[in-house]
Amino acid sequence: MKIDLTGRKALITGGARGIGAAIAADLASCGAELLLLDREAEALQATVAELSGGGAAVRALVADITDPAATLAAVQAETAQSGPYLILVHNAGITRDNLLMRMTQEEWDLVMKVNLQPLFWLTKELVREMMRERWGRIIAISSVTGLMGNPGQTNYAATKAAVTGFVKSLAREVGSRGITVNAVAPGFIRTPMTEKLQGEQIDRLKDAIALRRLGEAQDIAHAVAFLASEQAAYVTGHVLNVSGGLYM
Ligand code: NDP
After folding, report:
1. CATH for 9-242?
2. Where along the chain do its domains lie?
3. Whose CA is closest to 129, among 76, 168, 167?
4. What is the 16 CA–ligand 1 centroid distance (Å)?
5. Which residue puts its alpha carbon closest to atom 41 of ligand 1?
6. What percent of the chain lies above the pLDDT cut of 70?
C-alpha cells in the first residue's frame, strides 16, 4: 500500500518544528503540496528550505493564530493565489501548565486560543471548498491528555478533549460530501515541547508506556498521512491514539 497525495494541497498549522514539521515531511514525501503556517519566520523558513531542497512544493505562511482576523486574511490571500487546500491539519498547540488553583485567566485563555479556537474558524474557512469539491480531510492533533486527564493541565486537557466532540460532530455534518474529520492523540513524543522533561521523569514515563519508549514525531506523522489518504476514506469521527500503549 502506497499513500499517494499527488495533486492534493495541505495546510498545516505549527508546521515549523516538532510534530508539525514531521507531518509536513511525510505529506510532502507522499506528493502533497504544502502550506506551512507558523508564527516565527526564521524557523518556518528553515523548515521550508529543507523540504524544498528535497524537491517538495512548500509555501510558508507567517501568522499568529491567536489573531484569527489577520490569519484568515493571510490564508485567503494565499488560497486566491495557489488554490484551495482540501487537507487541513491543525497541529499548532501550546501548554501553559498550572494547578487549577494557581492558573491565571491568561493561561487558560491562551491555550484555548491556540489549541481549540482555530479548529472552528480555520475549518469553517476551508470546509466550504471541500464541500464544493466533495472531498476533504480535516485532521486535528489532540493528545492522550484529553482522553485520560493530567494534573496541572486542566486548560490543555480541556482543549484536547473538546477536539473529540468537534471531530465526531463535524464528521456527521460533512460525511455525505466525502469529507472525513479525525484526530490523532499522541502520547509523549520527543519534540521541543517535551524537551523540558528530565532523566528521572522520562524513566517514570517509560514505565507507564507499554512499548517502553517515548514516541518520535514520525510516529504521529505516519498516522496523519494515513488519515489524509484515499486508503482512509472510510475512517471518520475517529480519534487515533498513538501513544505506545500509554493510554488504551
Ligand atoms: P512544538 O512546540 O514543538 O511545536 C508547535 C508549533 O506550533 C511551533 O512551531 C509553535 O511555534 C507553533 N505555534 C505555537 N503557537 C502558535 C501560534 N499562536 N501561531 C502559530 N503557530 C504557533 O509542539 P509539538 O510538535 O510537540 O506539538 C504539536 C502538537 O502535538 C500540539 O498540538 C501538541 O499539543 C500535540 N501533542 C504533543 C505531544 C508531545 O509529546 N510533544 C503530546 C501530545 C500532543 P513557536 O515555536 O513559535 O512556539
Report:
1. 3.40.50.720
2. 9-242
3. 76
4. 9
5. 189
6. 100
